[in-house]
Amino acid sequence: MERPAIVLLSGGLDSTTVLAIAKSQGYTPFALSFRYGQRHAVELLAAAMVVEAQGVGRHVVADIDLRVFGGSALTSDLAVPKHDSAHEVATDIPVTYVPARNTIFLSFALAYAETVGASDIFIGVSALDYSGYPDCRPEYIKAYETMANLATKAGVEGAKLTIHTPLISLSKADTIRRGLELGVDYGLTSSCYDPSSDGRPCGHCDSCLLRLKGFAETGTTDPLRYQDT
């Protein structure tokens, strides 16, 4: 019997790993990506390749334009912070935080879940090796799940919705190890906040540095070709 689940899929390392985890747990994933005005839209090409490689029940790309608000280096002309080392990544909320992004994305996931009869949503948030985003914390996810079960027809009728965060307590290295165990091809993914026009990662934004740190800690090599190389 099919067990549908919504998987938020950006095309990055974390969400691609989560897609593989959902499949390994017996779910039929319905992938959901967003074209939200992000400067790193190359990630949508990565998401399409990941979907083709892993297989899903359906892949939806929702169009919303968060550039009308701005407020983030990912949706405006603000410069993306660059560093030479992951040790320089700030612990406060960085300018790459997109206001309320996960709240917006999860609301779309709720609607998608109800239409396909899914009681499960997977999201690749992590409270470790991340850039200080407030909507990646366990208490946020728990609160959102409570709200979701109050705000949906399915929840009111007793079909309890669960938001799965399989990476929430994993380091980037542990996430990569799990993905490699599941056969994830990280060469298909895109994590950079400021990639070149041909999609090559910069190697110096927070996301690139945390990704590179993760691969280094696993003793493996990131298959992506960075701008510096």
Helices and strands in order, then pairings?
Layout: E1 4-8, H1 13-24, E2 28-35, H2 42-54, E3 58-63, H3 101-116, E4 120-122, H4 138-151, H5 153-156, E5 162-164, H6 172-181, H7 206-218
Parallel strand pairs: 1-2, 1-4, 2-3, 4-5
3D structure, described in words:
This protein has 229 residues and is an alpha/beta fold. The protein has one domain (4-218): 3-Layer(aba) Sandwich (Rossmann fold). It has seven helices and five strands; from the N terminus they run βαβαβαβααβαα. Helix 1 (13-24) crosses helix 6 and helix 6 (172-181) packs across helix 7. The radius of gyration is 17 Å and the shape is globular.
Uncertain segments are: none
State the end-to-end distance.
47 Å
Query: Quick one: biggest sheet?
Result: 5 strands, parallel
CATH top-level class: Alpha Beta
Rg, rounded, reads 17 Å
Q: How would you concisely characterize the structure shown here?
A:
This protein has 229 residues and is of the alpha/beta class. The chain has seven helices and five strands; from the N terminus they run βαβαβαβααβαα.
Q: Which properties best describe this structure?
A:
Rossmann fold, 11% strand, five-stranded parallel β-sheet, 229 residues, alpha/beta, 7 helices
